[in-house]
Amino acid sequence: MTETIKTDVVIIGAGPVGLFAVFELGLLDIKAHLVDILDKVGGQCAELYPEKPIYDIPGIPMVTGNGLSEGLMEQIKPFHPTFHLGEMVTTVEKLGEAQFRVGTDTGKTFECKVVVIAAGGGSFQPKRPPIGGIEAYESKSVHYAVRKMDAFRDKNLVIVGGGDSALDWTLNLQPLAKKLTLIHRRDDFRGAPDSVNKMRALVAEGKMDLKIGQVSALEGGDGQLTALSVKCNDGSVARVECDAMLPFFGLTMKLGPVADWGLKMEDELIPVDMSTFETNVPGIFAIGDINTYPGKLKLILSGFHEGALMAQKAHHYVYPDKRLVFQYTTSSTNLQKKLGVA
Amino acid sequence: MPKITFVEHDGTVHTVEAEIGATVMETALRNDVSSIVAECGGGCTCATCLVHVDDAWSGIVGPPHAEEEQMLDAAFEVKPTSRLCCQIKVTQELDGLVVHTPAYQGR
């Protein structure tokens, strides 16, 4: 158990809306930690459209998803947010007035005065292939991530996919595994060319197998795989002995643990008060795509607005005895000092 | 206006009017074809708008482009006639197009 991290605000989600919330909170002297399940900031901007142009950010006629994330990171630098990436918030408990405990899947614990849920469409989680009965093997012999490489030592391992995750783990685990088979739907790989070459060399040397086709059935019992069938592109069906399978089909957005935190939900969205973006639990806010209210539009610019109003109410919980005076960054030397430009 | 028919996995058939220049994915969403998820909104980055183009139409619609072919790696039960329908633009030539939608788009 690591020590508890104490902070003013925990922001769940480091997409554009979570990032800009750091700015609005920072202007009010409120410190934030951000937690995101992805291993990078930017949320959907980073995962779904890093290179695609966005045309509806006010004042910026065109910016890519990555460009927007980079700009926001630059903008919030003066406030020194702390990032916890590759982690998922699993628990949020109210301990008392303006007092919450937040836990992650890696065992980290935060204590904070305010929780801001900026989780977009939920958390990005691995896609589950539609192979009959696969759920029964998950976490025991079907894994969507490698936590400990040693868990695959001396195993008959099957890796499925054609991108960098599949190829990187093929190269890393091949020396450990008893036997490794890579299965991909076509004999062409989108992963880094160097990794593809290394993998092909291992196949040529007879150190691993490559099958071109799609996994069609699993065999085993009590969560333990013993073999699987591959429908090969040449029409044949191959049976591969297998103790462990790692499928890599990319990520999809799932609501995740948000539904378990005692918040009122409507169709997988969190209803909020339109003047503060606070949920039904005082001190927990929801901003960006995850919230709902009359007229809600899932636009980045709406999330920015919601973050600004959220910060005003959050100030009340973080500094209950301080009066909040509204100021502009253009004219307030106080705000300009915080931004490091005065 | 061209008409497009979506045949869902469970047999539900939607024959709808499509705007020329829109994508087949947009046409599906506007007409509540629920088996088209389109998580990324048309960016060719999520592979949740998979369709299997009807054999009679496959030659006319054509094959996926290179980036789309790569993204098909993140879809399931991909066939030679499979496309991501956010990458198919509606033209007059596609009037009568039939596509089949899968039971599962990965979520």
What do you see in this structure?
The complex is a heterodimer of chains A (342) and B (107). Chain A has 342 residues and is α/β, with parallel strands linked by helices. Chain A is elongated. Chain A is built from seven helices and 21 strands. In chain A, the strands form six sheets. Chain A has a six-stranded mixed sheet with strand order 16-15-14-13-12-17, covered by helices on one side. In chain A, strands 6-3-2-10-20 form a five-stranded parallel sheet, covered by helices on one side. Chain A has two domains: 209 residues, FAD/NAD(P)-binding domain (3-Layer(bba) Sandwich); 116 residues, FAD/NAD(P)-binding domain, CATH 3.50.50.60. In chain A, 22% of the residues lie in helices and 29% in strands. The model of chain A has no long low-confidence stretch (mean pLDDT 96). The longest helix of chain A is centred in the last third of the chain and has 19 residues. In chain A, a hairpin with an 8-residue loop joins strand 4 and strand 5. Chain B is an alpha+beta fold and 107 residues long. Chain B has a single domain, classed as Ubiquitin-like (UB roll) (Roll), CATH 3.10.20. A five-stranded mixed sheet of chain B has the order 2-1-5-3-4. In chain B, strand 1 and strand 2 form a beta hairpin. The longest helix of chain B has 7 residues. The termini of chain B are far apart. At the A-B interface, strand 18 of A face loops of B.
Summarize the structure.
Chain A is α/β, with parallel strands linked by helices. Chain A contains seven helices and 21 strands.
* CATH 2nd-level architecture of the largest domain in chain A: 3-Layer(bba) Sandwich
Can you tell me the overall shape of chain A?
elongated
What's the CATH class of chain B, please? Answer: Alpha Beta
General form of chain B: globular
Q: Termini of chain B, distance in Å?
A: 32 Å
Mean pLDDT of chain A: 96
Total strands of chain A: 21
Structural class of chain B: alpha+beta
- Relative helix content of chain A: 10-25%
The CATH architecture of chain B would be Roll
Number of domains of chain B: 1
Task: Report Rg of chain A.
Answer: 23 Å
